[in-house]
Design a protein that fits this description.
Layout: H1 23-32, E1 47-48, H2 60-67, H3 77-90, E2 94-98, H4 101-112, E3 118-121, H5 126-134, E4 138-141, H6 162-172, E5 180-183, H7 196-209, E6 213-216, H8 220-230, H9 239-248, E7 252-256, E8 267-271, H10 274-287, H11 298-310, H12 314-333, E9 346-350, H13 351-354, H14 364-376, E10 378-379, E11 381-383, H15 385-388, E12 405-409, H16 417-432, E13 440-444, E14 455-458
Parallel strand pairs: 1-10, 3-4, 5-6, 6-7
Antiparallel strand pairs: 2-8, 7-8, 9-12, 11-12, 13-14
Helix pairs in contact: 1-14, 2-11, 3-11, 4-5, 4-10, 6-7, 8-9, 8-12, 12-16, 14-16
Bound molecules: pyridoxal-5'-phosphate.
């Protein structure tokens, strides 16, 4: 008999208590934080789905590995284990550790990108875009058209639009395109996967013009699992074989080990380009540390090396992708509109559809995120006009974002099915009284990245 229930493929070995603040405490916390969930203290939150970055649980093997950490300044044994783990998956010649993903982006773009360049990506993650723009270059998102339609159901909604990529390179000229990037899975596009066929096509276009291809590989293992499930010809391959093939089409990769490294901190830049690696290492010494630790402790390198192995375990990936889909199905079967199909690491509630009575400049997704916290202590994050809109200099309504979403990101190996059932109950309750929710206005905001610190009041 094959049983139906997919269980968490681990048992709990060490636990951390969750505080259970009551409604009055949560309301006080909202007042204090100016209705900004980034201002909450962790002990004011019951279930924290703010991000899947660095918030996962490490395994007993990773903790044991940390005890082996070699803290030698140069040439640490832990570095060589880390390097071997990265090379085994990526097949790349040069491996440069960094303290997290954006540090890898910063050194890559500093050495490879110049003012006036154009960097195509399926969808730039926010730090990736910021690091491209910081070099005076333009970051262009070229995801397929369905990739920005919340209701379009496609197996590989993160794919690059290959024709637009070709036209972009022809239009700006290959000498102004220092590299093409593909983000797997496409985080800012809803955690949607990219197919192997699409990677192959992007590679062919890059070859046509002699432009290198880099992967933003933060969720490479989740992407590999989607390929196994959804792409003909890959059903019998292991996640490691699939990941190796994905990396084989790339000349380099940036990685945040806080995602599919199953670690709380860490990242790397890997490349086959000797000149880039030489220049990147020189810059690394300036900003991150010596090239055999790159801003990490020896024990962090051990945790990442082991995490990169564990993340490719089939039982883990089956549970991981299934548990995100489980939350999506729970709320979507109850009629809550979400971005379809659910991505690997998060469920995105479509607040524009759920709260049509709140216009974008009154922040419907912020109103929903605030109510999920007030009602049930669940913290998600607004991805809408608070994050991507701009204030109007003459005092009119903000320019609005393309979509009004609340993202519920699922930390790895952290919450059990009953935690997720609880989240489902809270979301369904709040959605059931959506028409009674009211919008917000911003009372105070900084000039940059306002979503982190803006203060709101209720309308
Ligand atoms: C998280 C993330 C990054 C940046 O990594 P950090 O470790 O947060 O600096 C870059 N790209 C994508 C797709 C990400 O999800």
């Amino acid at each position: 008999m094959e049983y139906r229930t997919i269980i968490e493929p681990f048992r709990i070995h060490s636990v951390q208590a969750i505080d259970l603040p009551d409604l009055a405490q949560r309301e006080r916390a909202l007042e204090r934080s100016g209705f900004n969930l980034f201002g909450l203290h962790a002990d004011e939150i019951i279930i924290d789905l703010l991000t899947d970055s660095g918030t996962g649980a490490m395994s007993s093997n990773q903790w044991a590995g940390m005890m082996r950490g070699d803290e030698s300044y140069a040439g640490s044994r832990s570095f060589f284990r880390f390097e071997a783990a990265v090379k085994d998956i990526t097949g790349m010649d040069e491996v440069i550790p960094t303290h997290q993903g954006r540090a890898a982006e910063k050194i890559l773009f500093s050495v490879a990108v110049s003012e006036g360049d154009v960097v195509p990506n399926n969808t730039h993650f926010d730090t990736t875009r910021a690091n491209v723009e910081y070099q005076g270059a333009e970051a262009r998102d070229l995801v397929i058209a369905e990739g920005t339609d919340p209701s379009a159901i496609l197996p590989f909604k993160g794919n690059m639009d290959v024709e637009r990529l070709r036209r972009t390179i022809e239009e700006v000229g290959p000498d102004r395109v220092p590299l093409v990037m593909v983000t797997v899975t496409n985080n800012s596009g809803g955690g949607q996967p990219v197919s192997m066929a699409n990677l192959r096509e992007v590679r062919a276009v890059c070859d046509e013009f002699g432009v290198p291809l880099y992967l933003d590989a933060c969720r490479f293992a989740e992407n590999a699992w989607f390929i196994k499930l959804r792409e003909p010809g890959y059903e019998d391959k292991t996640p490691r074989e699939i990941a190796r093939e994905m990396f084989s089409y790339a000349d380099g990769a940036t990685m945040s080990a806080k995602k599919d490294g199953l670690a709380n901190i860490g990242g790397f830049l890997a490349t086959n380009d000797q000149e880039i690696s030489l220049n990147a290492r020189n810059l690394l010494i300036l900003t991150e540390g010596f090239p055999t630790y790159g801003g990490l402790a020896g024990y962090d390198l051990e945790a990442v090396a082991i995490g990169l192995d564990e993340v490719l375990d089939e039982n883990y990936l089956n549970y991981r992708i299934r548990s995100t889909a489980y939350l999506a199905e729970t709320i979507s079967n109850a009629g809550v509109p979400i971005v379809q199909p659910p991505g690997g690491h998060a469920v995105y509630i479509d607040a524009a559809t759920l709260l049509p009575h709140i216009p974008p400049h009154e922040y419907p997704a912020q109103a929903l995120a605030i109510e999920l916290y007030r009602a049930g202590g669940v913290r998600g994050v607004e991805i809408g006009t608070v994050m991507f809109g701009r204030p109007d200099p003459s005092g009119g309504p903000d320019t609005s974002a393309a979509m009004e979403l609340v993202r519920l990101a699922v930390p790895r190996r952290t919450y059990t099915q009953s935690h997720i059932d609880y989240v489902g109950e809270v979301v369904i309750d709040v959605a059931g009284r959506a028409s009674s929710l009211r919008g917000l206005r911003i009372v105070d905001q900084p000039a940059w990245l306002r979503h982190f610190t803006a203060r709101f009041s209720r309308l």
